[in-house]
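explain this.
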Amino acid sequence: MNHLWTGGNGGGSGNGVARWVPALDVHETDDAVVLRLDLPGLDRDDIPSRLTATC
């Protein structure tokens, strides 16, 4: 996830190709890490998600 926090404002990759980075909020509870993304125009059920944990 470090690439989300580095590289400036996310407005481009330096090669003339623009990229879009959604607004992201991350917080931790006692039993979970919660990610909330702002994805306008999409319904929650339309977004596939998968979590893989390695220890």
Observations:
- The chain has a mean pLDDT of 76.
- The beta strands are 23-28, 33-38.
